[in-house]
Design a protein that fits this description.
Porin; alpha+beta; 3 helices; 2 domains
Length: 229
Amino acid sequence: MESGALHSYSHLRISLLILVLACILPDAWSQRKGDMGIFGGASYYMGEINPSRHMYKPLPAVGGFYRYNFNQRNSLRFHAIYGSLRGDDLDFTNDFQQARQWNFETSFLEFAVNTEFNFFPYQYGKRKDRITPYVTGGLGYNFVFSSANRGTTDLVLTYGAGLKFSVSKRISAGGEWSFRKTFNDYLDGHANPGPDNTVFYHNNDWYSIVGIFVTYKFLGYLLDCPAYE
């Protein structure tokens, strides 16, 4: 009897949670402080094969995101990005890599939550607040697909910087360059061969994404509030 009561109580809590979410989420989705965007650019790898060269063998990366703007300075962004990475020892002239001749190509799908901080107050449709540089950082999770590493999943730390500007009362655009630190050394399917080749910033693999984005704002929000005038 006690077990049945606990089971019923558990179902009741789940039902209440679903009911609350059903009431809250539609309102949250239609919030006047939200916008959605699409992203297009390139992704590239840094790690054991490529320890320091930026924009090395870039491949296409595309994605979408939803951003909630708390105010003119601070936002929270949820994104999904699909891209590819590659590397080849023969692109480098040192004897070790020329002898090893390791190469790889892999694809990834990344989900992340990032904060954004605008250096200047930013609003859609306001001439004096229409452009700002910003910094971003957060935590993500990536799914890597390749024959070399047989598919891995991993947490990633994300950080970067960008510039955004208002095109109209509902549309904005910008560009961003961001970096991902992974917590494994198998993004390229190959671990460090020994302590002599262990270097702090590529002992665990990294990748970077650079590109441009366009966003659409659902409804006016800051312009409706006299506090922002």
